[in-house]
Amino acid sequence: GQNIDQPTEMTATEGAIVQINCTYQTSGFNGLFWYQQHAGEAPTFLSYNVLDGLEEKGRFSSFLSRSKGYSYLLLKELQMKDSASYLCAVNRITGGGNKLTFGTGTQLKVEL
Amino acid sequence: NAGVTQTPKFRVLKTGQSMTLLCAQDMNHEYMYWYRQDPGMGLRLIHYSVGEGTTAKGEVPDGYNVSRLKKQNFLLGLESAAPSQTSVYFCASSPSPYRAPNQPQHFGDGTRLSIL
């Protein structure tokens, strides 16, 4: 089986930096995705990590440590529009092929 | 550039009724997926397809059937709807993860289904 844990809720201030953590336990690991989902909308892709280290994309960065089963999403210069749910998803190779398993999401609220 | 299109967007059913949710993608993706999203549960995979004419069970397949007669379409059927199937259903598509593991799944806007 597998287990993906991320905090349920976080609150941060506009202009600040926030780090959303994700820990996982899985076999057949084949990469980790972060998605953003605004209320009532579809999830949209933010980042992908398969090797250890930091991937930077503008205000968003994502880090992976495969040995620790740990990833984080770093959001800089927070804006009100960043208020959304952030989903961590682990890709794994199974007997049935590649499958993506999602965490329950972290609801981020950005305040003035 | 439509991407992934789901119909309908909203639907209310009575217990025991049947219906089909439609998903279409115009990105020539091999893989297609159906998920349900419930509060506190995250996205859970119902069924998926690795190509035209193929389907496979996901994490929560009971009570659902699927068909992939054409590469661009993936249908999700509820034969006899139950209140426990009240949820938001998302369809997604992607290139083959074996060929392009770094390519994300692209999601439709969802179908909000209520079973009374």
In whole angstroms, how far apart are the ends of chain A?
41 Å
Shape of chain B: globular
**SS-based class of chain A:** mainly beta
Strand fraction of chain A equals over 45%
Helix content of chain A: under 10%
List the secondary-structure elements of chain B in sequence, H or E. EEEEEEEEEEE
SSE order of chain A in H/E notation? Answer: EEEEEEEEEEE
| Low-pLDDT runs of chain B | none
Radius of gyration of chain B: 14 Å
Structural class, from secondary structure content of chain B? mainly beta
Average pLDDT number of chain B: 94
Number of helices of chain A: 0
In short:
The complex is a heterodimer of chains A (112) and B (116). By secondary structure, chain A is mainly β. Chain A has strands at residues 3-5, 9-13, 18-25, 29-37, 44-49, 53-57, 60-65, 70-75, 84-94, 97-102, 106-111.
Any overview of this molecule?
- The complex is a heterodimer of chains A (112) and B (116).
- By secondary structure, chain A is mainly beta.
- Chain A has strands at 3-5, 9-13, 18-25, 29-37, 44-49, 53-57, 60-65, 70-75, 84-94, 97-102, 106-111.
- Chain B has 116 residues and is mostly beta strands.
- In chain B, a hairpin with a 5-residue loop joins strand 7 and strand 8 (73-78).
- Classes of the chains: A mainly beta (112), B mainly beta (116).
- The A-B interface holds A 30-31, 33, 35, 41-45, 48, 50, 87, 89, 91, 96-105 and B 4, 33, 35, 40-45, 48, 50, 56, 58-59, 90, 97-98, 101-102, 104-110.
Task: For the structure shown, list the relevant keywords.
heterodimer, A: 112 residues, mainly beta, 6-stranded mixed sheet, 5-stranded antiparallel sheet, 11 strands, 0% helix, B: 116 residues, 7-stranded mixed sheet, 4-stranded antiparallel sheet
